[in-house]
Request: fold
Amino acid sequence: MVRFSTRFGVVVALLALLALPSSATVWVLTANLTGSQVVPPTTSTAVGHAIMSYDDVSKLFNLAVYEVGLTQSEIVSARIYAGAPGVNGPAIVDLDGGASWSGNGTVFSRFITGGLFPAAYQANLLAGNTYIQITTPGGAKDIRGQLIPVPEPMTLIGLSTGVGLLLLRRRKA
Reply:
């Protein structure tokens, strides 16, 4: 009788391991786009924001970008580039020009669902070394923003706990 329950337990444990979810992580990244981040900086008064989710196994991403201050015809192109803050780099994902953007005359946005991110640039993306740039005629109103990974909630909780413990330890000393 003991043999049966031990074998059954081993089989259940193996099945549970097989049923565990894959080791994929879905990353969330955000960017605030301004003229001051363009290299060299522009005096553009336009601003924008982007939020991206990225699956590090399938390499698929969803992206929402919006901007205020540019007209649809002023959006010549928008792209994701590889490059650290303050450094220009190669374009790696095309987000299309103004004709692909929708809006109401004040705010224009671009949504991409299920886009394939180039695997060769994954490390750059997850390290904060990619950026979105919206290009305008002559570049005078260009805006740019670094895509920065947002810490997931457990990381924030762990960081907060560690800082709290350090502060308590410091108080006692």
User: Anything to note?
Assistant: The chain is about 25% helix and 35% strand. The two ends are 59 Å apart (CA to CA). The helical segments are 2-19, 122-126, 153-172. Confidence is low (pLDDT under 50) at residues 1-6, 8-20.
